[in-house]
Write a structure and sequence with these properties.
single chain; 237 residues; alpha/beta; Rossmann fold; 6-stranded mixed β-sheet; 4-stranded antiparallel β-sheet; globular; binds adenosine-5'-triphosphate; AAA+_ATPase; branched-chain amino acid transmembrane transporter activity; ATP-binding; transport; amino-acid transport
């Protein structure tokens, strides 16, 4: 496997508090890897650590061989990693289109931005129809689509997604998951996906890792995990 994103023996948290205790993980080029685990396991912290939003105490995070340790999110985005966090992931008072423009801020006056907006809106017809509508007036599902669409505006090769389907109806969640799979397949973007709904994540993931108490307790192909009951996966029961 060609690892595009690598975590090696990572200890990280917030200030002095340590949440991840020795996490090593590799995301392969163009693959979807799901990070599963119970509440408070450190899944979001893993994404925050990659994106320079947590304190990295020890270990190494690298992207295409470039060390990310100590870099700011703005530098990490420029290298090709994008993040759609779980909350506050769109600007509510901006329209759909304005959110996409803002999403491309690191590209300056790149003339390709306009065509990328059209291209990304074609991927999400549900929000294309609402391009002039303020984000705060979108449904939950539409808003999550916008968050993913916005994250694509930096043309990433790695996309970090934190519970993109949280709070969505089963139907809206399934639609979004299909879009995420489509993004991987048509754009070759590698995706690290944190998801509460294990079955749904395993549907689209190639690989999965289970994080419990800040440590990866199990890792393997998504298929390997499908037959294991969640309690056993998370709590070893
Ligand atoms: N910004 C922060 N400052 C201090 N502690 C934090 C911060 N964010 C998270 N934590 C703590 O870190 C631990 C791990 O939280 P994290 O959000 O990474 O877990 P998670 O696996 O994503 O959980 P969930 O599934 O509930 O979202 C928790 O104990 C949480 O209280």
């Amino acid at each position: 496997m060609v690892g595009v994103l690598r975590l090696v023996d990572v200890y990280s948290g917030y200030g002095k508090m340590e949440v991840l205790h020795g996490v090593s993980f590799e995301l392969g080029k163009g693959e979807i890897a799901a990070v599963l685990g119970p509440n408070g396991a450190g899944k979001t912290t893993m994404l925050n650590t990659i994106f320079g939003l947590a304190t990295l105490h020890r270990g190494e995070v690298s992207f295409n061989g470039v060390k990310l340790n100590g870099r700011k999110p703005s530098e990490i985005v420029k290298l090709g990693v994008s993040y759609a966090p779980q909350l506050d992931n769109v600007f509510p008072n901006l329209t759909v289109e304005e959110n996409l423009v803002v999403g491309a801020f690191i590209r300056g006056k790149d003339p390709g931005i306009r065509s990328d907006i059209e291209d990304i809106l074609d991927l999400f017809p549900e929000i294309k129809r609402r391009r002039n509508q303020k984000a705060k007036t979108l449904s939950g599902g539409e808003r999550q689509m916008l968050a993913v669409a916005r994250a694509l505006m930096t043309r990433p090769s790695v996309l970090l997604l934190d519970e993109p389907t949280s709070g969505l109806s089963p139907k809206a969640g399934a639609t979004l998951m299909n879009k995420i799979k489509e993004i991987q397949q048509t754009r070759g973007v590698a995706i690290l996906l944190v998801e509460q709904n294990v079955a749904r994540a395993l549907e689209i993931a190639d690989r999965a890792a289970v994080l419990v108490g800040g440590k990866i307790v199990r890792e393997g192909s998504a298929d390997e995990f499908k037959s294991i009951p969640i309690e056993r996966l998370f709590f070893g029961k």
